[in-house]
Amino acid sequence: MYKLTTLPNGFRIATEFLPGVESVAVAVNCGVGARYEGKEENGISHLLEHMAFKGTKTRSARDIAEAFDNVGGQINAYTSMELTVYYAKVLKQDVGLAVDILGDIMQNSVFDEAELAREKDVIIQEIAMHFDTPDDLIMDYFDETAFPNQPLGRSILSSEERVASYTRDDLISYMHTHYRPGRMVLTAAGNIDHDEFVSLADQYFNLPSHPLGPDFDIANYGGGDARIERDLEQLHLIFGLPTVTMHTPDYYTLQIYASILGGGMSSRLFQEVREKRGLAYSVYSMGSAYEDCGILSVHAAAAPERAGELSAVLCEQIASMGASISDEEIQRAKNQHRAELLMAREAPQTVATWIGRHLLMFDEYRQASDITTRIDAITKADLIRLSKSIASGKLTIAALGDVSKLMPYDELQAKLAV
Questions:
Q1: 178 and 238 fall within a common domain
Q2: Cα separation of 118 and 88, whole Å?
Q3: Do 365 and 329 belong together in one domain?
Q4: Whole domain around residue 339: which residue ranges?
Q5: Is 377 left (phi over 0), alpha (psi -120 to 50) or beta?
Q6: First vs last Cα of the chain: how many Å apart?
Q7: Domain with 366 in it: what CATH number?
Q8: How many structural domains are present in the chain?
Q9: 238 in helix, strand or coil?
């Protein structure tokens, strides 16, 4: 059962009781991420998330770690383009500890200079690891090409030089600007009593009333061609096209479209690229929708000498989606999403962060029954209409490796119109 309480300062507290579990996942969901950063702030959201567990006015970093280890609990955080989430998972009798420490982190983090210096070194190593991983690095080139000179096109990690430059005052200022109660949701899922959870929130969260901080800049899709020569065994390739935002009725249509195109072993891309032609070990597509824009991306890696064939096939498969989609493909994709949705509900942590994301992005919690109803309502005409719209967009290409055999950009763009 889902319940929501909104405090006078705009801070929302939401829970969902999940029968049959002994644990509770608690999350502080903040409606701010890397795309809220100015150019000179790139990477600060991620650094701030890393510093969350490095000590408060009354707890050291070790105290926080030991508190959760003592009860067999877990605590972590992550940063995305539009969200930063701090979460913990504990047994039901320890939910007070989780709320206490998360509240302490949100209100009393000290950002100790020595801890900050160490954590910046950790992130610099993370950046180095990122540059050594072609699957990750190509995403940076893709985002930069799709959304040039704007936050959506910049790496969440930022650069070594930028991360090294940040001070304690920078973190405090950024947190004060963006971490406002109206842009934060405290959620819990699992074996939880809503009224008791609200009482814990009243006890451990004393967030002052503030107007919301500045919003992000509207995205401006650019598209184009980025080919980066690098000595690798494979050519890593991403194709992308602009599509719908998360606020349009076609949001779920995009998810079904991406599944049919490249969402599983029976998908068109997997069957054509891997099973029939043996061009790639891994090939898949995904639909990413933001507040104000969206992008379909197709990912693959292949031997450089087969790059021409692979790139042509990817565009041909995208183009063919607008010609015909079978009832069997649609039903299979719907069944996949329904199964993924219901399986995800068996994990309290997923549900807790899901509630927070929905409230921040949609201003409502879309429960499983609502989502399945929306998915079931998608028609073949909806999918073909969206397919044609996607294929008519400007192509983004990011390629990393030996790019010499990759087809010219204009020829690939033309294949989408077939």
A1: no
A2: 23
A3: yes
A4: 224-415
A5: alpha
A6: 49
A7: 3.30.830.10
A8: 2
A9: strand
Phi, psi of 238 (to 5 degrees): -130, 130
Mapped onto helix, strand or coil, the DSSP state of residue 299 is: strand
- Position 363: which residue type? D
- Tokens for 260? 């049919």
How far is Cα of residue 30 from the mean position of the Cα atoms in its chain? 13
Are the CB atoms for 344 and 303 separated by under 8 Å?
Answer: no
SS3 assignment, position 377: coil
The model's pLDDT over 371-405, given as tens digits with 9 standing for 90+, comes to 999 999 999 999 999 999 999 999 999 999 999 99
Quick one: 185 and 299 in the same domain?
no
Are residues 234 and 303 in contact, defined by beta-carbon separation less than 8 angstroms? yes
Short-list 247, 182, 201, 290, CA closest to 3: 201
Residues 109 and 66 in one domain: yes
Record the tokens describing residue 17, joined without a space.
């009781």
pLDDT tens, position by position, 212-244: 788 898 999 999 999 999 999 999 999 999 999
pLDDT digits (tens, 9 = 90+) for 20-32: 999 999 999 999 9
Q: Is 109 helix (H, G, I), strand (E, B) or coil?
A: strand
Half-sphere exposure of 243 (CA within 13 A, CB side): 26
CA–CA distance, 193 with 5 (Å, rounded to integer): 13
For tokens 């992308």, the residue is 240
Which residues carry out catalysis?
49
